[in-house]
Design goal:
By secondary structure, the chain is of the alpha/beta class. The chain has one domain (6-36, 183-509). The chain has helices at residues 6-24, 37-41, 198-203, 251-265, 281-284, 300-312, 353-358, 374-377, 495-509, and strands spanning 68-71, 75-77, 81-87, 93-101, 109-119, 142-145, 153-161, 177-185, 190-195, 225-228, 269-272, 286-294, 297-298, 315-321, 326-327, 330-331, 341-344, 346-347, 389-392, 411-416, 432-441, 445-455, 461-464. The strands form six sheets. A seven-stranded mixed β-sheet has the order 11-9-12-14-23-22-21. A five-stranded mixed β-sheet has the order 2-8-7-4-5. Strand 21 (432-441) and strand 22 form a beta hairpin. Helix 1 packs across helix 6 (300-312). The chain is globular and about 70 Å long. The relative contact order is 0.13.
Length: 510
């Protein structure tokens, strides 16, 4: 996708607005509303989805070649086919259990099906191509047709080798495990659209060695670097050492606590991938979209569609940070499958001159920056990008804080991190700073964050919670690990975070 100048961007935005207006009249008409679907789903028996045994290749590796895999699509609808690609080294028989993630009485998932056994084999690691791209072209190990009764949700597949353990076998071998991950989407109307931040999972994915958008020798944020969804997710390498999340992207780390909590509370929620918001109709069927965790990498079409949806009355809750930071258009893979590659082109908004000077060695240079992310968030990513701090109430009389008991200056310890938003759009009429304070990068370098809220033209709201760690205050589901970064950490579930979130959702879906 070529870089756009401002004039071209305005033309494209206008076209998207017209399309959004046309599709708004029919959105949701193809599927009935099922407001109790998630409540009923969570009455079903739960199961343990966690990995038990996982072996990285070595101390410097971000992969587990014992068993690893990926899926042919980021998201899929009921009735559609999903190819699953698996490599085992050495060749080994393996099985696959598919879990839907949710609450399920506290178990955190439901076992949906068990597949296999399959005869696994080693599949080749591709050579690095143009723009540092690593893109697998593996042979499919199996193809799954999504059953009609599988609800929308985030699905983890637990891959497990099945060594020969017949009685009398000498030197029995252990089994090894990792995950695959995909999203089941639907087109029904719902109160909440949970948008997974899977573009960013892939941007930071260093499988097989160091092939993320951040490992170009030119600079950590260099333009013209690409990644592919056609590869396994390696071990997460930022701020948190949790090898038992291998293969799940960033979902278990930053997004699962919200999923677990929403389904525990019985909200009417449906799920989607970043890529699904290339279709404006995906947004018009919901009352509010929630961005969760670390939602940094966006195609311009995502931005345009969300901006138009806000104008049409969609509420957006940014329970996340470092959002809409880099312009990363989708392109097709080598086989022509659409939206399987991401390329970092430029940034959203304009860096301030002092920010360019401070980060000259790692940023850009970026030409023709995209539109200002503050237009759809209320604030932006600022320098220093990272840090940790307490989330401090600035407007205790605001409806957002109803029932929390918080007074001005009261803080929720460690909730802000490891990235945040600042520099609120004070020129926007009606924008309110509801929480603000300081963070310290590396424990020493001072930064300032701002949580913001503004109303859309149809009494819809846009709330920016300004922290990747927001979901840490909602729940502590099975297998979850509380992060620690920049010498600061959140403290886990907090009734104030839960109440603020309930207040925001109540206003967003009314």
């Amino acid at each position: 996708m070529p870089l756009m100048d401002r004039r071209d961007f305005i033309k494209t935005t206008s076209a998207a607005a017209a399309l959004g207006a046309r599709m708004n009249t029919s959105a949701g008409a193809t599927a009935p509303a099922q407001p109790d679907l998630i409540k009923v789903e969570n009455t079903r028996p739960g199961a343990d989805f966690q990995l038990t045994r996982m072996m990285p290749d070595d101390s410097k590796s971000h992969r587990t070649s014992k068993i690893e895999g990926y899926c042919s699509r980021q998201s899929v609808s009921a009735g559609e086919k999903l190819d699953i690609f698996v490599s085992t080294k050495p060749a080994a028989r393996f099985g696959l259990e598919i879990f839907r993630m949710g609450y399920y009485g506290g178990a955190g998932s439901r076992l949906m099906t068990t597949l296999g056994p399959f005869e696994g084999k080693e599949q080749m690691v591709p050579e690095m191509g143009d723009q540092r791209l690593r893109e697998c072209q593996w042979q499919a190990s199996t193809t799954l047709t999504i059953p009609a009764d599988w609800p929308s949700g985030v699905y983890l597949g637990r891959l497990s080798t099945q060594p020969n353990r017949e009685q009398g076998t000498e030197n029995p071998e252990p089994y090894w495990q990792s995950y695959i991950i995909f999203i089941v989407k639907d087109d029904r109307p719902a109160d909440i659209l949970f948008q997974c931040s899977d573009n960013t999972w892939q941007a930071y994915n260093q499988w097989p060695v160091k092939e993320s958008l951040y490992t170009d020798p030119r600079a950590a944020h260099a333009p013209g670097v690409s990644v592919s969804f056609d590869r396994p997710y390696g071990k997460y390498v930022q701020i948190l050492e949790n090898p038992l999340s291998m293969g799940s992207g960033e979902f278990l780390l930053w997004e699962y606590p919200l999923c677990y909590w929403l389904e525990k509370e019985g909200y009417d929620v449906t799920y989607c991938s970043n890529v699904d918001n290339l279709d404006p109709a995906n947004l018009t069927r919901a009352k509010t979209m929630i961005s969760i965790g670390h939602d940094e990498y966006w195609d311009l079409r995502q931005y345009q569609n969300v901006k138009q949806a806000i104008a049409n009355g969609l509420s957006v809750l940014w329970l996340s940070a470092n959002d809409v930071y880099m312009v990363t258009p989708f392109t097709s893979n080598a086989q022509g499958a659409p939206n399987r590659r991401l390329t970092r082109e430029t940034c959203y908004g304009e860096f301030r001159e002092e920010e360019k000077e401070a980060y000259a060695k790692v940023l850009g240079p970026f030409e023709n920056p995209g539109p200002d992310e503050r237009d759809i968030i209320g604030a932006r990513t600022v320098v220093p990008f990272n840090g940790g701090g307490d989330w401090t109430c600035a407007k205790p009389d605001h409806w957002l804080f109803e029932g929390t008991g918080m007074k001005k200056g009261d803080s929720i310890p460690g909730l802000v991190g490891w990235e945040f938003h600042g520099d609120p759009d004070t020129a926007r009429e009606g924008l309110e700073v509801v929480a603000e304070g300081h963070v310290w990068a590396g424990g020493t370098r001072l930064g300032k964050y701002a949580a913001t809220l503004f109303e859309g033209p149809k009494k819809n709201i846009v709330f920016n919670a300004t922290t990747i760690f927001w979901s840490q205050g909602l729940s502590d589901p099975p297998g979850h690990m509380i992060p620690w970064s920049h010498y600061s950490r959140p403290h886990g579930p907090d009734e104030r975070v839960q109440r603020i979130t309930k207040n925001a959702i109540k206003r967003a879906i009314q």
